[in-house]
Amino acid sequence: MPMTETRVRINGINVAHPPLRLPQAEAARAIGALTLNPRRAAALARGTQIEQRAIALTAGEVLALGAAGARNDVYQRIAPGLAIDAARGVLGEADVSRMACLVTSSCTGYSVPSWGVDVAEAFRMPACTARLPITEAGCAGGVVALARAVDHLRTRPGASGLAVAVELCSLAFHPGGDDGNLTSTLIFGDGAGAALLQTGDGPGLEVVDTASRLVPDTKHALGFALTDQGLYPILTRDLPDLLGEPTREAVLELLYRNGITTRDIGAWLLHPGGARILKTLEDGFGLDRCQTHWSWDSMREFGNTSSAAIFDVMRRYFQDRRPGEYAVVAAFGPGLSIELMLVRAQ
Question: Which of 11, 89, 203, 240 could lock 280 by a disulfide, CB 3.0 to 4.6 Å apart?
């Protein structure tokens, strides 16, 4: 007999960030001095609409690291603690004996075994908890992790799952380079996010459906190059234009198969990949800022923390949610890939 699917909801969301805060004006001055182009750095910084970011090390400390191995050592030292801090905020008194899956996401460092093992052991999860580390989804990884946790729980009534993302984007900082590298340096920050998922009825955000879309012929637009000096960001300036129409098509298809339209969506929880991306999506869907402000607020305070960023956007909305309201969650990663969730507040 075919298995029946059960309802899955996000029951809690939490984030964690390193204690260091880097004001954007200070970042612009430092990068301007390094690139010998202070006016260009200042102009780009103003355009980001970011006020500050959290970083694991100072810019000087990152530059002193040099090679890839030293940078990755920092990742292995800091990432597990951030992941545990984020998870602790949602697990609370949860019954971890029911933890059926732990899905983790990160693209800014490398660790085998993954830091997911540290999370599982820190909270004494059952030895049979399924672990799925996602390492190459980039900024879309947070939504991918949530979607895969939902998939796992659909046929496991009474079970729980945990999705966690950690990114130390500052470790990819390099002086000089093209505008893409300079923009990345002024946009990305460090942080972690975690979400507890549970089956059955109750408060939270019910995950109604998920969707993925790969944009053809866009591999060049976003990603990392692995060099002897570490990960080097690849970011094309026409990224917003490449994402605009494909995102619209993917969202409309997701809504259509669930019998609703954009008029039924009360909140748009968009990955804060940059001011131009957010503005392009707002224009494409005809949105007011009141429908997207959680993304702008997150970006202003923490910048783009890659796969961890969507957890902060969703955390902000979680506190404001109105029962019965639909929300679209969207994130974008290398490929180019578009990852979507349709959720309903409970």
Answer: 240
pLDDT digits (tens, 9 = 90+) for 219-269: 999 999 998 888 888 888 899 999 999 999 999 999 999 999 999 999 999
Q: Give residue 44's pLDDT.
A: 85
Phi, psi of 100 (to 5 degrees): -90, -25
Q: Is 272 within 8 Å of 304 (Cβ atoms)?
A: yes
Are 28 and 51 spatial neighbours (Cβ–Cβ below 8 Å)? no
Give Cβ neighbours of residue 72 (< 8 Å, ≥ 6 apart). 109, 110, 171, 230
Are residue 73 and residue 104 in the same domain, yes or no? yes
In this structure, is residue 2 part of a structural domain?
A: no
Q: Which DSSP string corresponds to 195-225? A: EEEEESSSSSEEEEEEEEEEPTT-GGGEEEE
Residue 330 is part of which domain span?
Answer: 205-345
Same domain, 224 and 82: no
In a domain, 3, yes or no: no
pTM of the model: 0.95
> How far is residue 249's CA from residue 252's CA, in Å, rounded to a whole number?
5
Q: Which stretches in the chain have pLDDT values below 50? A: 1
Contact 139, 304 (CB under 8 A): yes
The answer to whether the beta carbons of residues 24 and 45 sit under 8 Å apart is: yes
Task: Report how many domains make up the chain.
Answer: 2
Specify the pLDDT at position 1: 41
Tell me which of 199, 221, 252 is where a domain ends: 199
Query: What's the rounded Cα separation, in Å, for the pair 281 and 218?
Result: 18
Burial class (CB in 10 A: 0-12, 13-18, 19+), 234: middle
Q: Is there a single domain that holds both residue 274 and residue 299?
A: yes
Q: Give the residue from 199, 226, 260 where a domain finishes.
A: 199
Cα Rg of the chain, angstroms: 19
Terminal-to-terminal C-alpha distance of the chain? 31
Q: Is residue 1 part of a domain?
A: no
How long a stretch of residues is the chain? 346
Residues 217, 292 within the same domain: yes
Neighbouring residues of 176: CB distance < 8 A, sequence distance ≥ 6: 34, 35
